[in-house]
Amino acid sequence: MLKIEKFTLGPLATNAYLLTNELGQGIVIDPGMNPDMLLERIKDLDIQAIVLTHAHFDHIGGVESIRKSKGCPVYLHQIETEWLENAEYNGSLLWPEVGPPITTDPPDVWLEEGQALTFLGETFQVMHTPGHSPGSVSLLWNDQLFCGDVLFRMSVGRTDLMGGSSKELYDSIHDKLFILPDETVVHPGHGPGTTIGYEKQHNPYV
């Protein structure tokens, strides 16, 4: 059984997730800005991958420091490949008061709809869930869903940034996330966790 740890990073309080097994291996999902506490936690771990739900700057600020220190590949949907290298695309140029422009090397592996990834001896299903950004993905492991900025507790991701679409976001939530079992635990990119069942009943945006 994997252990899930959450680290709230950077000025936008972005949730990064560390999943580990009993062998001292792990993967990191969305390592955000100012990742010192995360880097300290993983210093003695074998990090096998960095998985990005999307490439907005507040979710990628720790990518290079972890990739270089751990020598692990970075996974991202192909649509947003250029976003890692382009501070305009990833949004870090839009909020200079938050921090300097962020750029990283390209991803090592592309994610795509329906892909089954094997990490830490477990299988993760990739769902392409655009709307907040065109390459947003959600990662499902058993009854645990890591959905980036697609769905929050009683809220949803904004759609006014580059490539955003309210219709696509609505379709992603209803056609892919809301067909999951109600007990599915949602680990969002910001804020507290929730469940699919709770959001179906209480989320005023969907």
TrEMBL record:
<keyword id="KW-0479">Metal-binding</keyword>
<dbReference type="InterPro" id="IPR051453">
    <property type="entry name" value="MBL_Glyoxalase_II"/>
</dbReference>
<keyword id="KW-0378">Hydrolase</keyword>
<dbReference type="Pfam" id="PF00753">
    <property type="entry name" value="Lactamase_B"/>
</dbReference>
<dbReference type="InterPro" id="IPR036866">
    <property type="entry name" value="RibonucZ/Hydroxyglut_hydro"/>
</dbReference>
<keyword id="KW-0862">Zinc</keyword>
<protein>
    <submittedName>
        <fullName>MBL fold metallo-hydrolase</fullName>
    </submittedName>
</protein>
<dbReference type="InterPro" id="IPR001279">
    <property type="entry name" value="Metallo-B-lactamas"/>
</dbReference>
<comment type="function">
    <text>Counteracts the endogenous Pycsar antiviral defense system. Phosphodiesterase that enables metal-dependent hydrolysis of host cyclic nucleotide Pycsar defense signals such as cCMP and cUMP.</text>
</comment>
<feature type="domain" description="Metallo-beta-lactamase">
    <location>
        <begin position="13"/>
        <end position="190"/>
    </location>
</feature>
